[in-house]
Amino acid sequence: MKSRLAIGLLLILALSDCGKRRKPVKYPTPDSNDPNSGITIAQPTATATATATAPPGEVTDADRTAARDLYNAGAALQQQGKHADALDKFQRSVSVFPAPTTLLHVAQCKIALGRLVEAAEDYRAIINVTMPKGSPPAFFDAQKMAAQELGTLEPRVPHAKVIVTPDKTPGLQVTIDGQPLNAALVGVTRPIDPGTHKVVATAPGYAPAEQSFDIKEKESKDIPLTMKRK
Prior knowledge:
Layout: H1 2-18, E1 25-27, E2 39-41, H2 61-79, H3 83-94, H4 100-112, H5 116-128, H6 137-153, E3 159-165, E4 173-176, E5 179-181, E6 189-191, E7 195-202, E8 206-207, E9 209-215, E10 220-226, E11 228-229
Parallel strand pairs: 3-10
Antiparallel strand pairs: 1-2, 3-6, 4-5, 4-7, 7-9, 8-11
Helix pairs in contact: 2-3, 3-4, 4-5, 5-6
């Protein structure tokens, strides 16, 4: 994630150097309540979650305009509380111009959708990147805001520990909501989004074991599963 953001920032700076006669584009700040207010930066912004898809010579003025329009559309949708639609707009803009400013919007939309774990990682991506020399001041402001918002978010993220008995069952495979859980994380507390989840454990010679559970923000739960031989 960090390397992707750095690549995106370098792309934006390169574009800025190659097109200094272009008219600056105005974007709303992440916490703005006015879709027409904004900060002025040298090039359209997008988020840190994607690698630049084309070298500077292949990014057209039409692409830049489209990325700007997607950003502004996303900001308007976010202010209307339409977070899923807003997230789609921001992420489309990401594929054209990665930048930390828009990543703030991505994280905020994910929080509103209950995707706290992903949002925390988006914030960390902004905080941890080394900004290239000459980055717009708005990028540094985004880092400061990301740190503030991450500090508020982290205590809200629930945690769960999947405990399987017998311990170290040969061939054990565990999934959470259909996604594989790394064997090294069985018996380890890990962050999880609030809501309803389903854990399933399978192993050769054992009947599948499963358990559904609900978890709320700030909660920490142990999820025990007992494997029984067939």
